[in-house]
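Notebook p. 47: complex prediction with EPZ.
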Amino acid sequence: MPQYRICHSPRLSGEVEISTAKNAVLPILAAALLTQEEVILHQTPALTDVRHMLDILRSCGAETETEGKEARVRCVALTNPRNLGLLRTMRASVLILGPLAARNGECFLTMPGGCAIGQRPIDLHVKGLQKLGAKVEQEGGAVRVSGSLKGANVYLDFPSVGATENLIMAATLAQGVTRIENAAKEPEITDLCHFLTLMGARIAGAGTANIIIEGVERLHGAEYTPIPDRIEAGTLACAAALTEGSVLLERARTGHMRALLFKLAESGVIIQEDSRGLRLRGKARHPMEARTLSYPGFPTDMQAPLMVVATQTHGLSVILETIFENRYMHVVELNRMGAHIRVEGQLALVQGGHALNGAHVSATDLRAAAALMLAGLAAQGETVLTDPAGHLMRGYERLEEKLRALGADAVKVEEGSGRANP
Ligand code: EPZ
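Predicted complex, structure tokens below:
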């Protein structure tokens, strides 16, 4: 069981490179199932979720090979996953639905249940595939899709990231033209569309609410480097803002981080963009108001890290979580460290200016784990973060090492030994 020991941190300083985005790599790996030819990805991050997705692709008949940061996938004969158990532990496994339906005209999957942050249903994915002509049967957590796909107009009741990605992938091989209205506009969707276009897909409107896909006979292989991780960059930006640091986040795309950077700037942090990435100086001092929204609104994945910053500003900050129904589990642990946060439904009222004290805390989900590591930087004394499900390693490439490179005292403790292994 991974454990991390974090001590009160001096001002962070120095530079660190941002890894490639988990939420860009996962749909792009699923898209590799759309072709018989080889797909090569560069700068692939060493994350549990990426390894898990590669396991799922192999279970669907793909050959995969990883060498350093390069991942190669080739799926000559696509089958339903032979090991359905692999699908249950990662929400992003739903992203193979579109490629299987498109290429094989049928698929049978067991869907992951909800997770700590919410029910996470797939009704929008199912409704969209039905509009494309698929017959979809759902029973006991399993989904059976059959029938060839034909282009259609699909309206998403909510701009779901995963549903948009699945429907784009399905539409690339459907007969005719598909229009997705009220599509999600996240940068990871634009990146997926760039990759699919390299494979020979015909897509217009990527990154807008109206995406048009003209189906083609087949797609060919491609070589690609996905975008940097705006959530990892945002998490490190919050670490700098907490400690009055002066850091350079190399490869960070400020254009993907506007909502967060506006919040940090309003709170007193000096933001500078240069050719190498994003520079931040100074401390977040003024309270903030943030409402999580679909992109380009404030990202829900940044809600927990920003809340930690808010605990150290002077005044009352107000955060409204509108995307997931249960994404405040980090609050209990933060209050145990001395924060003054009150949750009223989807509203969190953060009374800043109270010192945090080191404590033994436990991670409940990926972004909560990152937030608690940040809290350890600001807390007096030592914090021990226990991460029973290994959440942190799912979505961050050695976050504790990146913080240490900036001067923090954060180490991963060998499981069960108590010895630090910096
Ligand atoms: C993606 O999840 C990300 N995951 C999430 O990141 C991110 O928080 C989320 O988008 C929102 O930005 C990946 O890209 C792998 P949604 P996804 O479909 O696609 C509801 C992280 O920490 N909904 O946009 O599952 C759903 O319940 C993770 O890296 C339906 O009701 O998100 C949720 O309340 C966490 N029906 C809301 O929409 C559906 O069919 C947003 O979900 C689909 C979704």
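Notes: The pocket of EPZ is lined by residues 23, 26, 91-92, 118-125, 158, 160-163, 300-301, 323-324, 366-367, 395 (CB under 6 Å). The chain has a mean pLDDT of 96.
Next step: compare against the earlier run before touching the bench.
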